[in-house]
Amino acid sequence: MAFELPPLPYDYTALEPVIDEQTMHLHHDKHHQAYVTNLNTALQSLNQFASMSVEDLLHHLSEVPENVRTAVRNNGGGHANHSMFWQIMKSNGGGEPTGALADDIRATFGTFNDFKTQFNDAGVKRFGSGWVWLAMDRNHKLQLTTTPNQDSPIMDGLYPVMGNDVWEHAYYLKYQNRRADYLAAWWGVVNWDAIAQRYQKGKSM
Ligand SMILES: [Fe+2]
After folding, report:
1. Can you tell me the distance from the alpha carbon of 182 to that of 157, in angstroms, rounded to the nearest whole number?
2. Which member of 30, 32, 52, 82 lies 3.0 to 4.6 Å from 57 by CB, making a disulfide possible if both were Cys?
């Protein structure tokens, strides 16, 4: 068993103009592929871990042999985070969530616009490379959090409902140093149906 790069669920141009085609090629075909390749290399003689789902692997990180644990943390996290990321975007996305997810966001953060503002602020303030997340704790309470590098909320016992990648590789070609502009524009490609499915999965865990 080896981990594999999942194909994009849409064309490389699908998220234009918010995310440009060249960024999508580099981000998916080079960066995500490298996390998968390096994860497989780290686990090449550790079949009991290589046969887990990547989420289970991150849950059991403390059991991974110490000599490869950092490599598994960085590359397993990178594989899990990006696999989530492609799924929660789509062409002509955006708008607002509906149903239970929308109710929960309002109950936790105020209006939908309040939520977006808090999410974007957290993403801007994440120093260096990392991610900004809407996550769910064990009691199914929503919270905003950020992680450094390719760390996943799973490593903190949280379920990642949705997250945005604030590594420069996610936005630098089009937005250069303007991370806040990227964060603001990103809502236009968000796939709320996919996020609602993840939310329901988190509620069932
Ligand atoms: Fe990335």
Report:
1. 28
2. 52
* CA of residue 150 to ligand 1 center, whole Å: 8
Q: Cα(64) to centroid of ligand 1, in Å? A: 24
Distance 77 CA to ligand 1 centre (A): 11
What's the gap in Å between 10 CA and the centre of ligand 1? 17
Dihedral sign (CA 37, 39, 45, 47)? negative
Does pTM top 0.85 for this prediction? yes
Q: In sequence order, what are the beta bridge partners of 159?
A: 136
Q: How far is the CA of 50 from the centre of ligand 1 (A)?
A: 22
pLDDT digits (tens, 9 = 90+) for 52-80: 999 999 999 999 999 999 999 999 999 99
Residue 138, phi then psi, degrees to nearest 5: -65, -20
